[in-house]
Amino acid sequence: MNRVSIWVLSLCCLVGIGLSRSEDGVEELKAKESLLSYLEKDAASPGANSLMVPLTLIQGAVSKGAVCLDGTPPGYHLDRGFGSGSNSWLIQLEGGGWCDNIRTCVFRKTTRRGSSKFMEKQINFTGILSNKAEENPDFYNWNRVKLRYCDGASFAGEGQNEANRLYFRGQRIWSAAMEELMARGMQNAEQALLSGCSAGGLASILHCDEFKDLFPKTTKVKCLSDAGMFLDATNVAGGHTLRDMYGSVVTLQGVQKNLPNTCTSQMDPTSCFFPQNLVANIRTPMFLLNAAYDAWQVHESLIPSSADPHGSWRECKMDHSHCNSTQMQFLQDFRNQMLNAINVFSKSNQNGLFINSCFAHCQSEKQDTWYENDSPRIGNKAVAVSVGDWFFDRTAVKAIDCAYPCDSTCHDLVFNDVTSTITISQSTRLTFTLLNLLSALLITLTCSKCTMEFQFGQ
Ligand SMILES: *[C@@H]1O[C@H](CO)[C@@H](O)[C@H](O)[C@H]1NC(C)=O
Ligand SMILES: *[C@@H]1O[C@H](CO)[C@@H](O)[C@H](O)[C@H]1NC(C)=O
C-alpha cells in the first residue's frame, strides 16, 4: 500500500574538506531539522491520488508586523469543505521545534521554518487533512487549513532583534491568520477544531481558549494536541535539556506576555511553556494524543547527544528493542511522568485522551497512523475514530495504553545506524536506505558542507 521511499541526495563530505565539526554547527542544525522533518510529517506516505493544496501567503499580515523570522509574510494552505462539512473548520498548526538563540533563529531564516520564501508552494493533505472519507472519516469534508510555522516559538512570541534582523512575531502571526480565516468564512463556522502537531501541538494548547473565544458561544469548538505533551523531564545525565531550551525560547522571543495568566500568576514563565502546567486549566474541551514514549522527546530531551557523551545510550535511543532493563526503566519512568502530567486533565468529562505505548511522534497527519487497516489502536479503536468519537460526543474517550511492550499495533520509529536504514517496525512500510542519513541526523557530524534533500513518494 503506501510504501514510502525516501531518496536522500547527500552531497556530503566532499573530499578535502576538513573532517572536524564546523565552528558554527550548521550541519548540526541541519541534522536536527532533518530529524524533525522525519519525525513530524514529511515521511507521510501520500495516497495514490494525493491531494496537493496550494500555499496562500497572508500579504496583509506584513503591515501588522505579523511576519516570519526573516520578515516575509506567513502562509497557510486551505482546502474548502463541501456538503455537510461546508460550515465546519479544522485548523492544523504546523510544528517544527523551536529556535532558542540568535544562531539557531538566524539559521531558521534560511529554511521554510523561518521564511515563507522557502515554504513548499503546495503540500499533500493526508491523515486528518485528507479529503477522503475512507482516509479521514469525520473531518474529510470540513474546511481544512494547515497554518505554516515560521516563528520558532509555537506561535507565541513577540519581539524582534534589530542587529540580526530577526522578527519574533508568533503571536501576531496567530492573530493575523485567524483574522484572515474568519474573513474567508470561518466566522460562520458551526463547529471548529484547532489542532497541531509537535511544536504546533504545544501551540494548540497555548491558543485553545483564544480560539474558542473567536466564536459565538453556540459554536462547537474543541482542540486537539498531537505530540504536544512536552514534559519538563530530566535527561539521562541528570540535566534539564528541554527546560533550558524553553527558558531561552521564552526569553529570546518574548513569550511571557502571551502565556496563560492562570499559569503565569502562579509559576515562572518557563514553567508556563510546559503543557503539564497548562492543560488542567484550559476551559475549552481538549484532546491529548501522544505516544507515551514520544520519539522526539526520547531523542532530544531524554537522551540528547550532549547527555550521552560516551554513547552508552545510543543503541537504545536508536531502537528501543536494544534498551537494557535499566534503560527501559528510565523510559517507563518517563511514561509515568506523562500519566501524572495528564492526571487532573483526564478527570474532566469534556476532555479526551489517546496515549499509546509507542515510540512515535505526530500520529494525526500521517495516514498510516491516523486511519488505516493496521493503524495504531487502543481497545481496537484507531486514532481517527477516537478523536471523532470525542469531538462528536459519541462516546467518552480516555484511552491510555498499558505499558510497553503490550501494544502490538504501534508504528514505531526505529533508527538503525548499522545498516543505515530507517524502518518503522510493525507497519513494515518504511524501509529506506539513506546515505549518511543517521550520521547527518543523529551522530557526530563530520562533514562541513552537507546538503540533504528528501523526497517522499509512493
Ligand atoms: C544498561 O546499560 C547502561 C549503559 O551502558 C549501563 O550503565 C547499565 O549498567 C546497564 N544495565 C544493565 C542491567 O545491564
Ligand atoms: C505529495 O504526493 C505526490 C504524489 O504522490 C508526491 O509526488 C510528492 O512528492 C508528495 N509531496 C510531498 C511534499 O510529500
UniProtKB/TrEMBL annotation:
BP terms from Gene Ontology: cell wall organization
Pfam families xref list: PAE
InterPro entries, per database record: AB_hydrolase_fold, PAE/NOTUM
Main localization of the protein described in the UniProt heading: secreted
Signal peptide from the UniProt entry: 1-22
Entry EC no(s): 3.1.1.-
GO molecular function annotations of the record: pectin acetylesterase activity
Domain of life of the source: Eukaryota
Keywords, comma-separated and alphabetical: Cell wall, Cell wall biogenesis/degradation, Hydrolase, Secreted, Signal
Secreted keyword on record: yes
GO CC terms in record: plant-type cell wall
Family annotation (SUPFAM superfamilies): alpha/beta-Hydrolases
Subcellular location: Secreted, Cell wall
EC top class named in words: hydrolase
Reported function: Hydrolyzes acetyl esters in homogalacturonan regions of pectin. In type I primary cell wall, galacturonic acid residues of pectin can be acetylated at the O-2 and O-3 positions. Decreasing the degree of acetylation of pectin gels in vitro alters their physical properties.
PANTHER family the record matches: NOTUM-RELATED, PECTIN ACETYLESTERASE
Record-stated family: Belongs to the pectinacetylesterase family.
Protein name per UniProt: Pectin acetylesterase
